[in-house]
Amino acid sequence: MAAAPFSWIKPEPHGIHIVPADCWVDPSRAVDRALVTHGHADHARGGHGQTVATPETLAIMELRYATRDGATPVAYGETIRLPGGVDATYIPAGHVLGSAQILLEHAGERVIVTGDYKRRHDPTCPPFEVTPCDIFITEATFGLPVFCHPPIKDEMAKLLDRLAAHPDSCVLVGAYALGKAQRVIAELRRAGHRDPIYLHGAMEKMCRLYEEHGIDLGELRLVADHAKDDMRGSIVICPPSALNDRWSRRLPEPITAMASGWMRIRQRARQRNVELPLIISDHADWGELTRTIQEVGAQENWITHGREDALLRWCQLHQKRARALAMVGYEDEDD
Amino acid sequence: MEQFAALIDALVYTRSRNEKLRLIAEYLQATPNPDRGWALAALSDGLDFSAVKSSTIRNLLKDRIDPVLWTLSRDFVGDTAETASLLWPAPEHPPSPPGVTETVELLEAMNRKTVVTELPRLLDRLDASGRYALLKLATGGMRIGVSSRLSKTAFAQAFDVSVDEVEEYWHGLAPPYPELFDWAAHGEAPPDMANLPTFRPFMLAHPLEETVLDLADYAAEWKWDGIRVQLVRAGDETKLFSRSGDDISATFPELLDVLPFPAVLDGELLVRGTHQGGKEGGAASFNALQQRLGRKTVSKKMLAEAPAFVRLYDVLLLDGEDLRALPWTKRRQSLEKLMDRLPESHFDLSRVVDARDFEHLGEIREGSRDDAIEGLMLKRKDSPYIAGRRVGYWYKWKRDPLLVDCVLMYAQRGSGKRSSFYSDYTFGCWDGDPDAGADLLPVGKAYSGFTDEELKKLDRHVRQNTVNRFGPVRETDKSLVFEVAFDSVHDSKRHKSGLAMRFPRIHRIRWDKPPHEADRIEALKALIKD
């Protein structure tokens, strides 16, 4: 008896369930077997019996959860056979170090779960690869037409111009500790900024991990090891939560910047008391999301989290089948 | 328009007041007339173009992008002008951007029909920041954290003139203020205000804290609970201004033909009644007055049911003579003499409160709550009439506040010197017996009344006791009691609790008090006096 098409894959509130393999993609609670797309905490929870992910993602999870129990590495382009006759292939997603889309194949049907992704160049991870499939399960964090991330070199120029204009201050950049921070540092280096960059303590280990994976971040120093005056005219990177925290009082007249796709909206920047908004995101903007749906050309598009209403509407206007999945627990407030 | 747009963007993202002043002053110095005058108008009082409304912008956008996508975007961004600036489909090769003056002229020339073709042409010539600045300018208020006063202060700073003088001329001039720039930037004679019915900035009072005053030097008056107004007659025209200098003449037409000679009078606008000070007090409650505020037209019924009058405090100008430099006693004499020339139907005199000494005055003040009066004013007898708030001249001595115990429910981070601390608190009272499962309902918000040390402790309490987050707002575990002070409490349909407090502030932090011992809504309701 032939099963109904795609009945082997079921979106549930806590993750995507691959039924014949009894396996979950990015589950938001501990399960026996998890396929993890990337290392951000909302996708890579701890405590799974087995965790299948890229070696980079597993290294990130080990750093966070201090265990490698059940770690099963799969390199980009490699396929792993799961129980119940399901094949899983990890394909670059261009989001952060180690991030992957997961291509799932079963009974001749192909489903891709993107996790989070972007289409822009990122010196810290290989670019998103467009892969044909039947069902494309996409994120929609910036799924509104107002979101259009400008070229990153313009944002770097904004940052360096402000720094040059205020040699007695520092520019404090709030950036997500995994991915955004390292990308900003790598882009600063690409833009020719050779000075030491100062880090909030919470950033240090992740930056070291990136360096161990061959990403050159130049000279990094810890804020805690230096006097206020050392940091004048420098860039300091901290997690977004530390931006308005008393921690920043140890810095020399900091100019508050934040690297995030949300900075496109003035009130969002003002809410966070940001003086220098840098529109930099590791998620696809509206143009990238809609272009990707077109290029992948799946029969059906499922939307996991974000501004799904608008992306659904776009799919409807462009005669593309789509549905929104009511997923819980994915948050991208700081991206 | 590029420089103006850059200024707006910089102001949006600047928190420091001094930095804002510097940015505006630099722009005013570097920009020629009349561009800078229009910019100053946009930043201070706002410009008004009848053809461009928020709905105009919405409709233009809905013709260009899918209406559903527009609505979803607008809801998310929270601002029509900003959403439109982001979504406007820019042409590939935009024509050259317009200047500020050209923009203003084009906007002025638009009517409801032509706006549909002309505004898009203007939008096509600008980038996203320029479109934002244009749409904000075109629809009035910029709402970018720059007050009218701040803009004027920046103007004064830019050209090294006194801001009081700027205020003095401001209200008699119209954008783009060529006379103001001629005077301040080019040293020409100041504008002549003599025959114009213009607003003069109010003299304001400091709160009297612990100071004891000698009644030989100070006179006392009641502090009536209405709205402070200025009635001006010049060049055969009478105008009524609110405390902020807004022209509210149309709302109170009965006051426009009762002042028979040129003068500038300072007083309290009240509605006839017996709520404040009983029959002798002769004034209805603030709530009664509120029914008449904010109306563009007034019905006959309203005029009959809630007739307004002015209780006079002071006289600034009289029959062409400027009395402001005179001591209060001299101005008071002039005012008393003046009463014979004014109709009793629309004017009376704020009487001086007699007291043997300061202590006696304190006793009189204690009784003011029963009379539903806000408290007392104390004016130094030799004080000239000076715009703004000067130490030592005028004091307000409000009656002691009401107190109620509330529970902290939500907190938000503050701005300015309180930034990075959770310093804005929403608190509630129980809607029944808390031990029988009653809920807390928010009754007010407060941002003040605590010391810096207390603020640090409160901030720590909020961070360690958060149970939920809504954007910037933290919900706490409702374990902390505030003793909240407030001036009065009123019915309100706008709040779920059905109450609105006036001037709530934190009086004491009751670290010791268990939350279920905080007050109930009924206790607060019992304090409503209107």
Description:
The complex is a heterodimer of chains A (about 325) and B (about 525). In chain A, strands 7-8-9-10-11-18-19 form a 7-stranded mixed β-sheet, covered by helices on one side. Chain A is globular, with a radius of gyration of 20 Å. Helix content of chain A is about 20%, strand content about 25%. Chain A has about 325 residues and is an alpha/beta fold. Chain B folds into 3 domains: about 140 residues, Orthogonal Bundle (DNA ligase i, domain 1); about 200 residues, D-amino Acid Aminotransferase, Chain A, domain 1 (2-Layer Sandwich), CATH 3.30.470; about 120 residues, OB fold (Dihydrolipoamide Acetyltransferase, E2P) (Beta Barrel), CATH 2.40.50.140. Chain B is about 35% helix and about 25% strand. The mean pLDDT of chain B is about 90. Chains A and B meet through α5 and α7 of A and α5 and α6 of B.
Quick summary:
The complex is a heterodimer of chains A (335) and B (530). By secondary structure, chain A is α/β, with parallel strands linked by helices.
Could you name the key traits of this structure?
heterodimer, A: alpha/beta, Rossmann fold, B: 530 residues, DNA ligase i, domain 1, OB fold (Dihydrolipoamide Acetyltransferase, E2P), 3 domains, seven-stranded antiparallel sheet, six-stranded mixed sheet, 19 helices, 24% strand, globular
Q: Can you write the helix and strand succession of chain A as a string? A: EEEEEHEEEEEEHEHEHEEEHEHEHE
* CATH topology (level 3) name of the largest domain in chain A: Metallo-beta-lactamase, Chain A
Number of DSSP strand runs of chain B: 22
The count of β-strands of chain A is: 19
Overall geometry of chain B comes to globular
Greatest contact between two chains: A-B, 26 and 25 residues
Poorly predicted regions of chain A: none
Count of runs of 4 or more consecutive helical residues of chain B:
19
State the helical fraction of chain A: 10-25%
Rg calc of chain B: 26 Å
N-end to C-end Cα span of chain B: 51 Å
